[in-house]
Amino acid sequence: MTRIPLLRYSSNAISRSASAFTIRDYSSSRTNVENVKCLDDALSLFRRMVRTQPLPSVFSFSKLLKTMVNMKHYSSVLSLFRQMLKSNIPISDSILNIAINNYCLMHYSDCGFSVLAIYLKKGIPFNVVTFSTLLRGLFAESKIKDAVNLFKKLVRENICEPDEVMYSIVMNGLSKMGHTQKTFDLLRVMEQGSTKPNTYIYNIVIDALCKDRMIDDAISLFEEMKQKGIPPDVIAYSSLIDGLCKFGLWEKVNTLFFEMVNLNIYPDVRTFNILTDGLCKEGKVEDAEEVMRHMNGKGVEPNVVTYNVIIDGYCLRGQMDRARSLFDSMIDNSIKPNIISYNILINGYCKKKKLDEAMHLFHEISRNGLKFSIVTYNTIFRGLFEVGRTDIVQKFFADMLSMGLIPDLCTNRILLRGYFQNELVEKAMSLFHELEKKREDIDIELYTVIIDGLCKNGQLDKAHAIFEKLSASAIAIRYYSSSHSNTENVKCVDDALTLFRRMVSTQPLPSVFSFSKLLKTMVNMKHYSSVVSLFRQMLKSGIPINGFILSIAINNYCLMHRSDCGFSVLALYLKKGIPFNVVTFSTLLRGLFAESKIKDAVNLFKKLVREDICEPNEYMYSTVMNGLSKRGHTQKTFDLLRVMEQGNTKPNAFIYNIVIDALCKDRMLDAAISLFEEMKQKGIPPCVVTYNSLIDGYCKLGQWEEVRTLFFEMVNLNIYPDVCTFNMVTAGLCKEGKIEDAEEVVRLMNGKGVEPDVVTYTVIIDGYCLRGQMDKARRLFDSMIDKSIKPTIISYNILINGYCKKKKLDEAMHLFHDISRNGLKPCIVTYNTILQCLFEVGRTDIVQKFFADMLSMGLTPDLCTNRILLRGYFQNGLVEKAMLLFHELERNGGDIDIMFYNVVINGLCKNGKLDKAHAIFEKLSLIGLLPNATTYNTMINGFCHEGLLGEAKDILRKMEDNGCLPDNVTYNVIMQGFLKFGKISEMNTFLKEMSGRDFSFDASTGELLINVSAKDPSLLNMIPQFHSGS
Repeat: is it a keyword of this entry (predicted)? Predict the structure, then answer.
């Protein structure tokens, strides 16, 4: 092997200084964000930024986030924003505004409002940009009432002074939703305030008036604007020209057009497009083409909209040759057609029944990198039916579904009308019944198509029956209105959504109780996203909301791990005058703990108590104490118990159980017993849960005498052990290898009338598997099934793992296939276990198939999966496959840790690729990862194996320089290298070090020493330390 040159004298210093230089160079540069071209670039840059010390400026972080927002990677922006909050990276108002804007662009303005809490928490003042962004978000979600109320509140309570941008957002939002009069009124309000309207504001109002066909008012405002010295621009003229074109007032259009030119306001492409569109709609397509030629003469390039408008004009007149000629001309002029261009032309050909030409264009769409729309398919369906090509309708329909396009009402009407038109009555009725069965949103027009189709196909009786059913369904809805029992019939999400649709269409509306009952049912069914959707619909539709519904909404968000959105619901309490209660905040606290936001939860609890917002009850205390204890904050849990004892709400048995359990899990048994005795002295009777915690604690410490004492004490107090008690005892015994004793406990359970559950069996099966007694483990597994106790995925995983460790792949695979047959789903642990076994027995041929199956199940590979794959490929000599996976993971920016790199370095070393292993090892410091003892030992072993003992010693010194202490493995690996290559004299120095650190030879080193000394007995005399030690 070629010797690898190492910079012996200063490799470590160079590595460190290179890393420092890279970081300094990066840190001082603001141009890195400009190099971000894709999501991977952005994520890589963020990871480097958070590892840099000192951290880059807040400006750099905000610039990166803004770049990602512009690239529309909204969910990734949220992920990085949360990481910044979690890592306590400094946050500015700019970053918070970006986060709010990001939420609003995702149509989650409610989550945007939750960011306001961070402003308050960090003492950052609100500004006009913050609220302007939220207002834009509300309008984008059509929450007009909320937006108007927020704007009024800002002005009325003097929270912030609206500027031109804020006014323009509100007026734009109102005008686009058809509220022209309100837009006009707001202009008049603005004129009275300190912020005066500018050209942009007037343009919004003039455009709204024109679109609402209030052309006289628009011209009047236009004249008023000029009188006030506010110069109109091309947008104002374009809006007026558009309004006049729609009325066909061409003389006035002509006047305005020349007026703007005389004022040196030159028409832009939009102005010309408005003109061409108006002319085409009146059938004056040649005049429109003349306008386009005029555009070219004035240096205004026609765009795809210009061409589409004129192509559509020719299609409407049936002049397909001229339409196609213009379409080709557009392409020749390097203007790329869009899907609308294709839809217009395809529709024109279909109307002329020129299906071949339509199909040719249809197939061109994907070749030109465009995506079909539902309109494209609807047009093709209509064309196919028109020429009687019903034989390929189904194929096109299947293609449409495979494209992820969902049939709309128009699609269903076309299909039904087409089937009837081609006398395929059975197909039409089959589709109709399918739509009814799926509870699709069927309107009266669809029923009209059905009735008409049946009548035209001579099936008048069926048509009449459907006609009669229409009124019957209305009666059914009226009957529903008086009944509250329908919620009990909800068995799935479709039932719930159908019931909700009927409820909102009923007059008078059902009670608030009925709505809350439906939402609660859906939460219990875990249809969280559907609950959010219905809650938003209720708010949008003005359906009455009470405190109970708001609590359900908060709970639903918290169950989705979106407590930030839960906090946004608090604004609705204030808005609707509903008082907060202890349930509201207890739910939010539980949500924060579920997301491991411990600090936020503790701060909220302190704020509630300090500011007397609500008096904590036992439930709120238990939520906080449970949250703290489950995250390992035992002392804080105990301290809160002492605080609670001083207050009005005294701790009960449930509270004491939380603290005792926390102490036991933290192995603080003496403190737990002390609290247990204190609890009894205060007259608070312990229960089976209390005893279970203590028994579990003693089992883990193997203190069986104490377990026995507690067990009999609880029985004497008539507190009977439950299945949980017995499971703790069996688990403790199995962990100590006392499986027969554990089985004896199960027999005792049966004798006491306590049925063992799946946990009991799984624990003992695991015990047998750990001892390699697979026959006994399998018998117990089968016995569990015989007793009608259904195994869980954990039961299967344990048994599969047992078989895999014994390399019994057939038995493991048989169980694997059993999983889905028994209605369970394999988890990532199942696949990891099977993948590891496949590598162990050399079945690499089917690894890829299993991996593909895993992905198709929606399972995401974790760190363990990737390590197993890499280790397996290396173990089986598939170095190329391993490195392909490694580079792919690096490129994707996965969560790669030092253990992962250890696998790669070790695999390369064992496969004779020492140079590649060393290159990766040297790269670690540059990417911010610190090698651990295993990393260094692997490299030392690799060099020793190749006889490069000098390089091995260099790595050892580097290890010590970097503060990573060599261990027993390190010295044994080096000793084996010296022995293997006969470097006995050099061994003595390391033997002294090894002896001085109280390290000793392991079995492998000892065996090698014996083998070498058998060939050369004088060797032992050359190792005085070993000789004297023996």
Answer: yes
For residue 943, give the CATH number of its domain.
1.25.40.10
Is residue 769 one of the residues assigned to a domain? no
> Which of 447, 467, 487 finishes a domain?
467
Q: Give backbone dihedrals phi and psi of 166, rounded to 5 degrees, phi first.
A: -65, -45
Answer whether residue 888 shows pLDDT above 50.
Answer: yes
* 895 within a domain of the structure (yes/no): no
Single residue among 467, 501, 535 that ends a domain in this structure: 467
The pLDDT of residue 475: 32
Rounded Cα–Cα distance for residues 156 and 799 (Å): 68
Model pLDDT, residue 438: 58
φ/ψ (deg, to 5) at 264: 60, 30
Whether residue 153 lies inside any domain: the answer is no
Task: Report the domain count for the chain.
Answer: 3
Q: How far apart are the C-alpha atoms of 254 and 231, rounded to whole Å?
A: 20
pLDDT of residue 727: 87
Average the pLDDT over 496-505 and give the result. 82
Closest Cα to residue 63, out of 101, 89, 87, 36?
36
**Structural domain boundaries, residue 961:** 909-1026
Per residue in 1000-1018, pLDDT tens? 888 888 888 788 777 777 6
pLDDT bucket at 435, cuts 50 / 70 / 90: confident
Burial 340-350 (b: 16+ CB within 10 A, else e): bbbbbbbbbbb
Cα angle at 950 between 947 and 953, to 5 degrees? 110
Residue 246 lies in a domain: yes
- What amino acid is encoded at 197 in this protein? P
Q: With a cut of 80, say whether residue 535 has pLDDT above it.
A: yes
Q: Show Cβ contacts of residue 391 under 8 Å, excluding neighbours closer than 6 positions.
A: none
User: pTM to 2 decimals?
Assistant: 0.48
Closest CA to 879 of 851, 843, 912: 912
Let me know: does 535 contact 527? Beta carbons within 8 Å.
no
For 153, the 3-state DSSP assignment is helix
